[in-house]
Amino acid sequence: MLKHPEHFQLGKIGRTHGLHGDVIAILDTDKPSAYAKLEGFFLEVNHTFLPYFIRKISIRGNEAHISLEGITNVEQATRLKGADIYLPIDKLPKPTKGEFYFHDLLGCRLIDQSLGELGTVEDIIETAGQKLISFHYQEKEVLLPFVKQFVTEIDLDGKTLKTQLPEGLIELYMEETKAEKDDAFEEE
Fold first, then answer.
1. Tens digit of pLDDT for each residue in 114-129?
2. Domain 102-187 has CATH 3.30.70.1110
3. 7-90 maps to CATH 2.40.30.60
């Protein structure tokens, strides 16, 4: 499931800037300019959200040059490098028609054209190469590439995703279960 269901990760503190405690944040969003008037955010430090308030922010591309209240030198700013930036979910810009956020898909039922109901979306996993939908089928986690070829329709109002699974995907995961059982049998 999502790491912090009530918050979304906006980005990460990338590096310091100058000697007066400014930082450069890398924003992981399609619309960085939507955050040009941001007044504050949370940084995750040791699994805890700490609030930080912004004195000044300017955005260029996906980078935000930020001056934070209480951070006045490079040593203080250096301690923030690598920290993830979070905002409450209600701070997300409203999606336009046909757009959605990944957290909107959690709990949606997966209905395959051949197999029928598969389970529910438990997570969307973002890897370097692709996005994957995680769900359980017959008590086994299955990862489905989140591409138009396999996810043919998204109905957020009906909380369903229609799929056309690639041939052999479910069998691949079920074979792993069979192999695990065989290994356990051999150990006895």
1. 999 999 999 988 888 8
2. no
3. yes
